[in-house]
């Protein structure tokens, strides 16, 4: 009797191991793909959150320092204190008599250093898809002029990649009384 000294794998064993290896590889690939997508989404969300926080803090600080004209016991803004107040832009003097302005330029929120159209502007936030200002009286109704102004509300939408964020801030300037 001859004993076979050959050893190895049968064809069925090889095919079965290749199928199992394929299943493991596809599963690992899907996990890596999902992890990458999650990382990108979180990165986009972080970027939008950072931009909105920076913009809201800076805009709120600038608006709080808006100058007013004293008249008796009250202090309200005049047309010279707030020369431009539209839905898309605001220009004003701060309490140090420095001109400031805020507006949307493309998808960038700009801070103007001065109240004139040719004054230098600096980017506060990028990825801003919309920006509107609302001007309110002390009773919450719309203010028609700077003299009626009590609160400035800003609505802003930011986007980065797949992440979007809508933010709103209402600011009452410190000097107004």
User: Helical residue percent?
Assistant: 25-40%
Shape: rod-shaped
Backbone structural class: alpha+beta
Rg over C-alpha atoms, rounded to the nearest angstrom: 30 Å
Order of strands in the sheet with most strands: 3-4-5-6-7
The helix-strand sequence is: HEEEEEEEEEE
Instruction: Point out poorly predicted stretches.
Output: none
**Mean pLDDT, all residues:** 88
Through-space gap between termini: 112 Å
Count up the helices.
1
- Tell me the number of structural domains: 1
- What's the story with the biggest beta sheet? 5 strands, antiparallel
**Strand runs, count:** 10
Overall description:
The structure is a single chain. The chain is α+β, with helices and mostly antiparallel strands and 177 residues long. The protein has one domain (40-171). Helices cover 31% and strands 34% of the residues. The protein has 1 helix and 10 strands. The protein has one helix at residues 11-64, and strands spanning 69-71, 74-76, 84-85, 89-93, 99-105, 108-113, 121-126, 128-136, 151-160, 163-171. The protein has a 5-stranded antiparallel beta sheet, covered by helices on one side. A hairpin with a 2-residue loop joins strand 9 and strand 10 (163-171). The mean pLDDT is 88.
